[in-house]
Amino acid sequence: MSTPRRYWLLVGILVAFVLGVLFGFILTIAIPEAPARSDINAWLKAFGDIFVRLIRIVIPMLIFFTISAATSSIANARKLGIILLWMLILYIGTSLLAAFWGLIGGLIFQPGTATQLAPPAGYTPPKPPSGIDILLSFFQTDFNALLAVGGSVSMIIFAIILGVAVVLFMGENGRIVARFLELGSELSISVVRVIMYYAPIAVFCYSAWLISQYGPQMLQAYASFLLVQYGFSIFHLIIVYSIIVAIGGLNPITYFKYQITPFIIAFTTRSSAVVLPYNMEAAKKMGVQDEVFKITLPIGATVNMDGTALYQALSAVFIAQLFGVTLTPAQYGLVLFAALIGSIGTAAIPGGGTVMLAFVLSTLGLPIEGVGIMWVIDAFADAMRTAINVSGDNACTILVSRIIGYKLVKPEEQ
Ligand code: ASP
Predict the structure, then answer these.
(1) How far is the CA of 143 from the centre of ligand 1 (A)?
(2) Probe target for ligand 1 pocket from 91, 308, 359, with the most ligand atoms within 8 Å of CB
(3) Global pTM?
């Protein structure tokens, strides 16, 4: 993609975000009674929802082709195993650390003691999934179920199995299949890019809707939660990722220079899935070999969500404080574990992390109504957690690349 086109997309999304927020405020001033705005709000949200639906449609195709193409392109099964092993160690380690920041952020700053909240009227909490449900959701019952957004982890596992089958058992024909998968991967990334032309409209409508629907109330009541979430997320981004990429042999300044574009796209679109092509582009510019990032980034987009783990741990503490529940030290450990599993199971779409919060809260025996409470500020919380999620994928990718013995090579030198 040419630089000017990407530049315009980025500017378009940012301008749409600012204009949407302004438009939302103008709406609340021009039509002060909330019920009188409900029709406009419904239309604004619908135009935003179109974007999310398009993303949901492309996700199975994107995951399947990017991961099966990458797996089938690695002729050496041992090398693939090592990449996957180190990738998992780093993904799990950084997500646990992020959940730890969320936990201590909640305990030190106590954002939930500042106010008492009730869930929005008419809210019915979703049924929380059990531990067994979560485990089995990684292995769906049939192929159809893989195509649902909730089947993403199963789709990853299937795509890896298919890629390994191509390498191990298809001999010469395997090359033809691998080429087909590679073209499919290119095609799905191109489809995402076409959908991104709609992103500025969606971002405008969503941000206007959010302010018009929740603005004034949200700004005061939830400010302390967002302050703690944003503070610790930025700490994780700047300190932890700088250390990781420095150990990986890359100057942190270079990492941030190339990571800023995926960061902004993630912040405004709130979907790790749509950021994948931009994250891959950034990894290439940072000098990571195709062989590594084509495996680690698609999987990371789906399972590695540091921002979400931090948010879910912090939310659990926040909800406990709101309802006056005191957590025991053993439950603190459970917060970390639940946030880790919750973030792995979260779909890479807007709001995915708050849907999965139901699992975290129910694991801790906290009121499930907390999900309704967190929905109110979800777009703001989601913007930061998605931006952290995608940045973490690239930071870990750089270190994986170093550990398995690759040098970072700038695209022009490859
Ligand atoms: N929106 C996030 C993402 O796509 C997931 C979440 O809601 O936490 O990475």
Answers:
(1) 24
(2) 308
(3) 0.80
